[in-house]
Design a protein that fits this description.
Layout: H1 2-19, H2 34-38, E1 46-50, E2 53-56, H3 61-81, H4 86-96, H5 98-102, H6 107-121, H7 130-137, E3 157-165, E4 168-176, H8 178-184, E5 189-197, E6 209-217, E7 220-229, H9 234-248, E8 253-259, H10 263-272, E9 277-280, H11 282-295, H12 305-315, H13 325-337, H14 343-357, H15 375-388, H16 395-417, H17 428-446, H18 452-462, H19 492-497
Parallel strand pairs: 5-8, 8-9
Antiparallel strand pairs: 1-2, 3-4, 4-7, 5-6, 6-7
Length: about 500
């Protein structure tokens, strides 16, 4: 009975559903945005539908896609081969192919990551120590890192230097310019300039300093030895200088050496090159005196102007003959003493003159020298920084940039050896300063009385402002090459391609 009732109820419900069918809800018409209309009805010769009809193109989407792939491949290829900053490569390619650059995403997105991956794949693993660097460079697969960029591919990498002090081992690696070394073989008395920098050392290797040795040749300075050092101790410098003496300049007499006033370096030079005349750098001396004057408060506005002039006179002491250095200090003391008014000024004067007397045995005089500073070495460091783009890059990028700089300097050395002209890029202001300094020196030499105080005051007036900025001849030795051949014209490329084959030393 219950089953009969249940079946009758289900049948009635089924009939009621078929008698009243469900009506479909009408859909709202979809309105497409302008961006959606752009990519509708895509076909060959048309990229989409716009109001007023399709926009015609003379190429297919496949061609545009292939061009975009070629553009990206160009970015990857340049990133893996060249050592200039990636953003520079991107900007250069944008200028060459502006239409393709529009279809590529901005540099700071996926494009930058793509270029970074391409560059990373082309470089070896980043070394963790100088010992790992030496092991890898000696491997046959790393030949390009140990030879020069010239056509003969002569050895550029020198080797590993180790010195053991108690329980520690201090390591350095060095590189030698084969071209400048060959030129140095033609000289009897060599004049060298040396300086170190911390601004362009590679990161994550334990290297603390790039130490460079430059050779003075025909009025120009060319790097002959590059050293990457873990420590700046006297023992480490001695080993580098012994290598310079026995391997780089064998059987050669080193006549003069100009450096800064680093104690460990000067001590090592006295041991390895005892017969060489050790010269100081005027810029480094002026910088040290200026720093001391600032500590004594001589840079304040309320300080006596004559006291300030006395501090500038002190910075000009290296232009005096070495035998007149003590007389120059006494002349400065007398000038300042005649113009002081208070006990504080007298105290400042005594402290400054006491500081100057400590320099008597430091070979600070550059009187009669061809170069008064070693700013040519500083200019080389600036060139290296500009080429690298980032001061602290990976070791392999650093070595590639160092090889390029060596190649450029070697080409300049060959031009000078052939008698071609390499002009020095000096501003008009620096030229006037140089001419004024030479004029005052000539007057001082011709003066029988040789008023040292007057000479120092004139030099301080010439260099006023330059001393305050600690930029004594800062850019005076920055070099710019210009080729002026006598018999016919040659391009830079022709000279660089035949730099070793045509050179006869």
């Amino acid at each position: 009975m219950h089953k009969l009732i249940h079946s009758l109820v289900l049948g009635a419900a089924h009939e009621s559903l078929h008698e009243t069918p469900r009506q479909a809800v009408p859909k709202k018409p979809k309105t497409k945005t302008f961006e959606q209309l752009i990519f509708l009805n895509t076909s060959i010769g048309s990229i989409g539908t716009r109001p007023g009809g399709p926009h015609k193109h003379n190429h297919s989407p496949e061609e545009e896609f292939l061009n975009d792939l070629k553009y990206r491949q160009k970015l990857r290829q340049r990133a893996s081969v060249e050592n200039i900053p990636l953003s520079t490569i991107y900007n250069q390619e944008q200028e060459v192919s502006p239409q393709l650059a529009l279809s590529t995403r901005p540099y700071n997105g996926t494009v930058r990551k793509m270029m970074e991956r391409a560059r990373k794949k082309n470089l070896p693993k980043v070394p963790r120590s100088i010992q790992e660097i030496d092991n890898f460079i000696r491997d046959e697969r790393a030949k390009k890192f140990r030879v020069e960029m010239g056509p003969e591919e002569r050895p550029f990498y020198g080797g590993l230097l180790e010195v053991r002090i108690q329980n520690t081992v201090q390591r350095s690696i060095y590189f030698i310019s084969p071209t400048v070394k060959k030129i140095a073989a033609t000289k009897n008395n060599c004049v060298l300039q040396m300086d170190g920098t911390f601004s362009v050392v590679p990161k994550a290797v334990g290297i603390k300093q790039l130490f460079c040795v430059h050779l003075l040749y025909s009025g120009h300075v060319f790097p002959i030895m590059y050293c990457l050092m873990e420590r700046r101790t006297t023992a480490a410098y001695e080993q580098i200088l012994e290598t310079l003496k026995n391997i780089v300049l064998p059987n050669k007499t080193v006549k003069k050496i100009m450096t800064d006033y680093e104690a460990s370096l000067r001590k090592a030079l006295g041991k390895v090159f005892p017969e060489a005349q050790l010269l100081g750098c005027w810029f480094h001396f002026a910088k040290a005196v200026h720093k001391k004057a600032m500590k004594l408060g001589l840079g304040r506005q309320n300080v006596n102007r004559s006291i300030k002039e006395g501090s500038r006179m002190a910075m000009a002491l290296p232009l005096l003959p070495e035998m007149s250095f003590e007389e120059g200090i006494e002349a400065i003391y007398g000038w300042m003493e005649s113009h002081i008014d208070t006990e504080d000024e007298k105290k400042q004067m005594n402290l400054l003159c006491s500081y100057l007397r400590r320099w008597r045995n430091q070979n600070v005089s550059v009187y009669g020298q061809e170069f008064r500073t070693n700013n040519a070495v500083e200019s080389f460091h600036s060139t290296l920084v500009q080429m690298i783009g980032n001061p602290h890059v990976s070791f392999w990028r650093f070595i590639e940039s160092l090889r390029k700089v060596e190649h450029k300097k070697a080409c300049d050395a060959i031009r000078v050896h052939r008698g071609e002209y390499i002009t020095m890029s000096r501003g008009q202001k620096l030229k006037r300063i140089q001419a004024a300094l030479d004029k005052e020196k000539q007057r001082f030499d011709n003066d029988e009385d040789r008023d040292i105080g007057l000479f120092l005051r004139k030099i301080s007036n010439i260099m006023k402002g330059e001393f305050d900025q600690c930029q004594v001849e800062e850019e005076m030795n920055q070099e710019k090459t210009e080729i002026d051949t006598i018999n016919g014209q040659k391009t830079v490329e022709e000279i660089e391609n035949t730099r070793f084959k045509e050179m006869e030393l």
